[in-house]
Design goal:
Its main location: endoplasmic reticulum. With 125 residues, this protein is mainly α. It has helices at 20-25, 34-58, 63-85, 96-101, 104-123, and strands spanning 8-9, 15-16. Strand 1 (8-9) and strand 2 form a beta hairpin.
Length: 125
């Protein structure tokens, strides 16, 4: 007998939910606790901010173009994640705008700090 794909069966017959990590990387996961999905969006955005900050510092991108590209990459990638990959009903979370802006300013701050440090360290004497 095979195990159910999205839940592990315990010896007493009850089911447990897969971990947040497993649901985050599995397409069309169910999110009974809405806060967990918002946490995934928040922390994904933080990771994207740091990675893009490192990339922009290495490239060396600067100015308004770097800021604009960050906004497009950050918001765009998370929008694709929750609308296409997870296919959640945005209205359950307050609409697409609420999900798009979840954790954005914190991510922007992390991006700026990382971008400035990498760029300054590599491209200034």
């Amino acid at each position: 007998m095979s195990k159910p794909r999205n839940a592990e069966k315990l010896s007493n017959g009850s089911k447990t939910e897969p971990s947040v990590w497993v649901r985050a990387i599995t397409a069309n996961s169910e999110w009974p606790d809405k806060e967990e999905f918002l946490d995934v969006i928040y922390w994904s955005r933080q990771v994207i901010g740091i990675i893009v900050g490192i990339a922009w510092g290495l490239l060396p991108l600067k100015g308004f173009l770097g800021l604009l590209l960050f906004v497009l990459v950050n918001a765009g990638s998370l929008y694709v994640y929750f609308s296409s990959f997870q296919q959640v009903d945005e209205e359950e979370f307050g609409g697409a705008w609420e999900l798009t802006k979840e954790g954005f300013m914190t991510s922007f701050a992390g991006f700026l700090v990382t971008w400035i440090i990498i760029y300054s360290g590599l491209h200034f004497d």
